[in-house]
Every structure is written in C-alpha cells, then in structure tokens.
Amino acid sequence: MISPGILLAAAGDERFASALSASGVDRVIAYHSSVYRGLGLPSVAGLLPWASANSQTLGVLPGVIAGAGSTPVIATVCANDGLLPRAQMLERVRAAGSAGVLNAPTVGFYEGTMRSVLEAEGLGRDTEIQLIRDAIAVGLEAWAYVFDPEWARRAAEAGATGVIVHLGITGYPSLTDGEACVAAAKAAGAEQILLHGGSLRDPQAFRAELERYDPIASNAVTGYMGASVFERTDDLTATVQGWRTATTRLESGATR
Questions:
Q1: What pTM, to 2 d.p., does this model score?
Q2: Which of 25, 46, 189, 213 is least surrounded, with the fewest CB atoms within 10 Å of its CB?
C-alpha cells in the first residue's frame, strides 16, 4: 500500500531521473515524450507519427533506471502498437528493471471520427485496459490514465495500481470531468487516485481543483502526477516539497 500524498514525475534521461529521486518523488516515469520536451518541443508531439513511442521509451529507460536509483521507475507503453506489441514491451521493460507501466501515449486525447475509427479497429480504450491486466499478470505495477468515468471504472476494476485522472495537456483547458472520474474510480475500489494535467501547474491550482469537488471525491484523491511541471522549475526540490505538502494534506481530508 502506498501512502497518501504520492507523487509521480516524468523523466527522459539519467540526470533528471537522479534529481527527481533525490527530491523525494515516489515514482519516476520513463516517459517517451520527455524526449521531445528535452528538445524544447511540446508534449503533444508525442501523439504525432515522428517516431515509435515504445522504441523511445526503451531508448530512455536504461538511463532513467540508472538515475532513479532506489526510486521505482514506471515505463510508458503504447498499448495499441502493432509493430512493438504490448506483450513484447512488457517483457522488455520488466527485463530492463522497470517496476511498472503507464498507458501512454493514449487514445484518450482523440475525439470525434478519429477516436471512433480507432475504437472500431480494435486500437482504442480496450487495448489500454488490457495493458493493465497484462502488466499485473507479469508482476508489474499498472498505472492508468483515464479520461471519463467509464474509463476510470474499468481501469479500477481491472486492478490498476493507481488511476490517474488526466485533465488534459498541462496549461490548457481541461478535457475531463475530474470529479466524476474520481468518484467512479473510488466507487470501483481504486485505492490510489491521482490528478494530472489541465490547469494543474502548481499546488495552488491543485487545491483549487479539489475545492470544486464534493468532499467525498476531493478526499478520494491521493496524489499528483506531473511532467513539465517538474521539468521546467528552477528549484526542483522546493517544487517537489510544495506538491508534497499539497497532496499530503489529503490524508487528513483538509482539502477545504
């Protein structure tokens, strides 16, 4: 059982993984799109056909694991990759020393016709739910991005280690009804429910988000997952401590 106030943070190289570990985050994520952010490009580039997301993860994973030291590392896995399938990816990330996986890049960002086609062709949400089950079956943690209440429910029921409610690309308007997703995950038995993205650029915004939720939902949130929020700070230790303070307040239900 992971205590309340958990923080997950993304890294794309050994140096930053080491800094994150030293700052006290609970999990370091070897994130494919960190490659782009390291070049000054936006995270959304990770959804474009520039490279294989799974290959990028495998490329950064050894360095991130080396830098993270004793902090467990979670590897992003594109669940619907037909050229580097999830079974093969799970074997390779486990052999490399990863403690678990996260479903990224995710079809949750797609809407309209594009999303409908992906779902119809068997490349949609079901593949990401299956990733959870497959990861757990081989002894890995399974962290799950979710974008709607049904997704949150299914991820929790599949046994996700943690349900991460994705509110959209950080700094942009939310795509997701966070409160409804949290409530659905909690009702389905999720023990770890985190928030990520959208307006959550700092701990104050995190607290403001929770203040919009009813008390049951706000008190069900146990932590935060961040990427660019941690990468673009001038004082990583202070930033992590600020988030730690904001999220551990949840333990006593002091969100209001």
A1: 0.94
A2: 189
